[in-house]
Amino acid sequence: MATHQPSEHDHITLDSGDAEPVGLLYVGDVQALRRAETVAFHSGDGSSWIDAGLFSAPVGIPRIYTATEQRLFPDADALDRRRRIPVVGDIAGFDERQRWHEHHLPTATAYATIGAARLDEVWRSISAFVRVGDMVRLHWRADNTSDGLVDPEWHRDELSIGVHRGRRRWMFLLDVQIRPDPARMITRTPT
Q: Which domain of life is it from (predicted)?
């Protein structure tokens, strides 16, 4: 039985009534993830996405993007180009009252970035692993207590990326950050 391989679509023109599942990778998505110079991960307000990007040097001659780069990274932002890939994401962790939330940590937002994606071995492995038709999901974990941090000013936040291919599922630990409150990967707005 032949498997349906998604070919391509424009993420921007998808409306909420479209039957395409969020997180399904298309040909252009996989190619952009592999060619990206920066990759940013976002979750909050009920949505999550991955921004794969190319950037121009801050000084000197502006970068001229090839036709392929313009197709793979369709969103222009000043001198940079980006492809936004909507995905499913969940933020688990402890709230300000130290209650555990398995999914949808109230009022939480999360952000992480890989600045030199082509040099990051973990990201290069993940981007080489994903295939067209895979489903991608971001898993954020706030205040992981597995490392025994005793200082209440420091917090351990984690980002894992789940890849679903048919009945198979893989989970990759993408980033771990131990930081004080204002500079955390996962932040919460007080209720």
A: Bacteria
